[in-house]
Amino acid sequence: MTTTGAPTRTTTRTTTAELRERHVGPMDNVSYLLTCRATGAQLLVDAAADTPALLDLVRAGNPSGRLDAVVTTHRHHDHVGALADVLRASGARSLAGAADAGHLPARVDRRLAHGDVVAVGALRLHVVHLRGHTPGSVALVLRTAGDAPHVWTGDSLFPGGVGNTGGDAARFTSLLDDVEDRLFGQLPDETVVHPGHGAPTTLGEQRPQLAAWRERGW
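^ that's the sequence the OP posted. Answer follows.
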């Protein structure tokens, strides 16, 4: 399945950023574009598939085609299919979690750790390491005064549960512990969650299910 030519949807316009998304590839991945309204700087989250569609998305945010960085949330193949081509076409820097960086099919210019800050023009995105779906999975948190926070979670948090941990109890516990502590424990209920597949949600919508997720073990 390809989404080239499909409409680009502006998901949110905050006081400091424009947030866009594009569904791409046979696994219906969601790639996200963040545009700094003050400077036109741009960051793409997960160059998953369909390079022409993603470059169209970049131009929708900034007609010059400026792309400053690509953050890969984790190493899985469906999240990196267009990475090398997008980097080559745009000249953007490549960023990924340190433990996953060596497994990507393209260069990584910066290896991310928990607590790092990624600057995109005037925007500041905070890196959250979420261990379990993969060893180096990362989420990005955007907080701006007067707006609800936004978090891009890759495949670590979805509506209805955390990401796949292959039936490994230790990995599941690690991931749920990190999600509870580092997302639900630090961010308010109005935080908008942008997952790597499917529709957005909020932490408030998901918070009542945390105990049930732990009980069922996935």
